[in-house]
Specification:
alpha/beta, 15 strands, 3 domains, Hnrnp arginine n-methyltransferase1, 6-stranded antiparallel β-sheet, Rossmann fold
Length: 378
């Protein structure tokens, strides 16, 4: 959902909000039309209205727009700001936007359908010469020494033999998962390198990859990779989420190795980082080659490998598999057929309860099921 991060950032990151406000002041002229994607509680929309926008559209997937509507009214901008709950890629508007502002990031900008949403909005909704905020995000990586984080989340629970059982076999799954952390500056073992740039004015694909190389200059124990981003909102206006800066709600990402590695002076590391959007979620890959005096170490890690897979799942996704309708599917079929005939929700619920008497304890329960189904699909 767009708004969950947005609300926390509004409260916790005053520096980030000051940067967004400065970007809006620089781009929203008198009479401008603006779109706030992931409006949350409406803070960006309110700023745009105060800057002189003639009309501001705010869209969010989350029902938090009801709170935003209350705040818009309380601040006297009900005639200017128009809010809507929904997916902006499925919406149309009566005019093109002079400014489109968003913050759809998570710990990293590669979150859900962030990039496809920006691409769609840029191509369909932005006026010629209009402004996108942010303009660009840059992704950075370094090697990190995080012994407490590694022990707490990736080692101790699986090596401590809880209740006398050997859980070590599960550790192989866990080290394919990355997590949000706060990286102290002194935990960074090498100079960070930029591995990708997200130029929102030109980006055409949500899939990102990049390669990094480091020559190790001093001995250190390394536990994996640390990732973060910095941003250009507009012109010279932006902020950084690098270790050592004022902490932002995003945090940084820690991508562990299967085991800590004692790096030696003269070792050479190459890392391939890749993130592919699949069914609305990113699958991350981080492949590391450590060339040492001893045999070379190679780690091939992926969030896909961290998922326990049931072989039966693959059978049901084959092109020659012929599934039958479950009882739930038959109930949905009845509902949609009644919708096609123009029946009311109450009439559909009555019909549903009569055809599937064992599934609902009351008329109101059937009505609730129908309402939930139609709210999602109708």
């Amino acid at each position: 959902m767009y708004s969950l991060f947005g609300y926390g950032k509004m409260v916790a990151d005053q520096g980030r909000m000051a940067a967004y406000e400065a970007a809006l002041v620089a781009t929203v002229g008198q009479g401008a039309i603006a779109l706030d994607i992931g409006t949350g509680t409406g803070i960006h929309a309110l700023i745009a209205a105060r800057c002189g926008a003639r009309r501001v559209y705010g869209v969010d997937l989350d029902p938090v727009v009801a709170i935003a509507q209350t705040l818009v009214k309380a601040n006297g901008y009900s005639e200017i700001i128009h809010l809507q709950q929904g997916d902006v890629t499925q919406l149309t508007f009566p005019e093109k936007m002079d400014v489109i502002v968003s913050d759809l990031r998570g710990v990293l900008p590669l979150l859900g359908r962030h990039i496809p949403t920006i691409i769609d909005s840029r191509e369909r909704l932005l006026a010629t010469g209009g402004a996108l905020i942010p303009q660009q995000d840059r992704l950075w990586a370094t090697l990190v020494h995080l012994p407490e984080t590694y022990a707490t989340h990736y080692a101790t629970p699986w090596q401590s033999q809880p209740q006398g059982f050997d859980f070590a076999a599960a550790q192989g799954y866990i080290t394919h998962h990355w997590r949000k952390v706060l990286i102290p500056p002194d935990a960074c073992l090498v100079e960070p390198q930029q591995w990708a740039t997200l130029d929102y004015g030109a980006i055409a694909s949500p899939h990102i990859q990049g390669d990094l190389t480091w020559e190790i200059e001093q001995e250190s124990l390394c536990h994996g990779l640390g990732l973060w981003f910095d941003t250009t909102l507009w012109g010279e206006i932006g902020f950084s989420n690098r270790p050592g800066e004022t902490p932002l709600v995003y945090g940084q990402g820690f991508f562990p190795w299967p085991q800590p590695v004692a790096l030696q002076r003269g070792d050479r590391l190459t890392v391939h980082l890749q993130a592919n959007l699949v069914n609305g979620e990113y699958i991350w890959q981080w492949q590391t080659v450590i060339e040492q005096r001893s045999p070379t170490l190679t780690f091939k890690q992926s969030t896909f490998q961290g998922q326990p897979l049931n072989p039966a799942t693959f059978t049901t996704r084959r092109s020659d598999y012929a599934p039958g309708l479950s009882p739930r599917g038959r109930m949905a079929q009845l509902v949609f057929a009644d919708l096609e005939r123009g029946e009311t929700l109450g009439a559909i619920a009555t019909h549903l309860q009569s055809q599937f008497p064992g599934h609902f304890g009351s008329q109101s329960e059937a009505l609730g099921w129908v309402a939930d189904l139609t709210a999602t699909h109708a």
